[in-house]
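Interim report, section 4.2 (structural modelling).
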Amino acid sequence: MNHLVPSWTRWLAVGAAAALVASSALAQTKGTPAKAAAAPPPQTVKIAYIDPMSGPFAGVGANLLKHFQFAVDAVNSQQLAGPGVKFEMASFDNKASPQETLTVLKQVIDQGIRYVAQGQGSGAALALIDAIDKHNERNPDQSILFLNYAAVDPDLTNSKCSFWHFRFDANTDMKMEALTTFIKDRPEVKNVFLINQNYSHGHQVSRVAKEQLARKRPDVKIVGDDLHPLGQVRDFSPYIAKMRAANADTIITGNWGPDLALLVRAARDAGLTANFYTYYGGVIGTPTAIGPAGENRMRMVAYWHPNIENNPGEKQYLEFKKRFGEEFYGISTYSGLTLLADAIKRTKSTDPLRVAYAMEGARFSGLNGEIEMRASDHQLLQPLWLVSWTRVGGVNRHDIEKTGFTWKTEAAFPTYVASQPTSCQMKRPARPS
Amino acid sequence: MIESTISQMLYGVSYGLLLFMLAAGLTLIFSMMGVLNFAHASFYMLGAYIAYQISAWAGFWPALVLAPLALFAIGALVERWGLRRVHKWGHVPELLFTFGLSYIIVELVQVIWGRPAVPYRVPAELDGPVDWLQRFDITFPEYRMFMMAVAIAMLVAIWLLLTRTRIGLVIQAALTHPQQVEALGHNVPRVFMLVFGGGSALAGLAGVVGGNAFVTEPAMAGTVGAIVFVVIVVGGMGSLAGAFIAALLIGLLESFGKVSDWSLAQMLSTLGMAVGPATPGYEVLTLTLAQVAPVLPYLVLVLILIVRPKGLLGTRED
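Predicted structure of the assembly:
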């Protein structure tokens, strides 16, 4: 129904934005402009969270903001960023749209926020990386650092890589490598159907899957390669009927949020017996939609899950669940903020330029083991797991979304296996003295 | 091939019938009161959430009865204490009222049940494919069949109610001649309240059966809202039969359009014209129907408004 009355809501939004811009401009003229080099580091580091807080992906947006809040509280209570330096999240709604993201980035800049966290949607991430690059080039003393915790389009750390961008999720090249390595030894995979969202991320998943399958399993047939609009499909059953007609035994999808929840729901209702290979089966709401029907059929490639052996993140998992009553799965939020805090502590500065140099090449112990921020392309190197949906029991003890089911490790890929080469040729600003 | 076409068609018809359940209430309220109820899709969502809650306590079947009744009560209260007061200021404030209400309901739902989807499930009795269809190698969920049956039962019930009962005749009369009906001693405001409550109950019923067929989440109102407006405009504002035809049309369009690999380039090449990357407009020509499918309902809406502004079976010229 929003479609029928866009004009006033838009005008309202424009009005609100104008008011914000005006007020922050006033604030800036009143106060003295920040002198990054001379002034002592500010006590509070604000991090703008630019992600959907309304529309179909609002549930995911709100849930991942809680992940960030959780990480911020850990940083603050343990003084991970050094004594007296506090983190604070400020959330901005980009409605999952690249255009809105840029509008929101202007507000972020006007408010003098120097750190941006975004993840849901590579479309928005591509818009951000470009806009932040330009902004930083023109305003070197107002530079902004981009913490990408979930946008997995490989371009972001390859052809479009930027010094100001750091990715904490594993990208599609890495995830698909793990996934196809697993598929390589599974003879039951014969007819693969690809279904993805029609935007950069979905296109990449489809492309990389086809490339890697052709290399590793040339006998596998791609019986379907569909793209559907992002966040708009309510009923996936026509796609399921198409999968059945094509005799698909394996579905590979990079869908996330409701686009995956609805897809698996439709598959379940139609009694589709194909196996699912997903990226985001663990995202809030999806485990509920998978339910018992996904037992042993739903698989996911993930950088962490609650039942990994000697789990370094188990304490955080239980704490988060107790505090919010929701699942903790997006540990890239935690990796991102703890690495940022560590860099601030080491440099004793909150200047993004210094912090970015300090983050490059940093190795640290995260919730999924020993991880490294690769200096050449700012892609976090971390282990990956291929997991399947199974009944709670034994070592697989953490019940996901009260379904009675959980994730079980099928294959573990250590960091050196899960890493992929990069073609990034990074342009770096002058290193501060 | 024929099996997959039939199952696509069944999916299309079942989705269309769900849309009809929603559109029926909306169009009934519109024809009766002249109010375009923006909160209608929110009532649909509320129906799903209330049904989820009741089914968690007492099972699906009580929810099927109780949730629409709850929505009837909510709708009647909204009319009695909200709309009726706003009514005297004209249609625009009424529209704004329902618009605001839709936001309040979404926020309320988020406060009570949270932002993520709730585990509202299809009852075990109806979970599984239809047996007799499987003999023809067609797998179609039993629940979808049930959804269709509910929609058709509802259609028949409304039709009987409106044409064969006293209250139905009063409603129909009040539709066109409210003053005369009032002069005859009928309580027209109460009729309005009943209609609004009834329309809300229909939306609630759609929520009960649609919420577990799809996903019950706060965004569900927004996603069906726009489509339902397309249905009632295409069908003709205030026409139940029109809404029925339009809902089926949109349902089938969605179902077949979504997965069709048909494109203009394909059509031209079957006509014997060579189409390659050098052809002007190649990018547009190779767009598949599936890629433009989300726009199709709105395209139909625009075309209908241009060609036949009153809709397929609409009678109003204004």
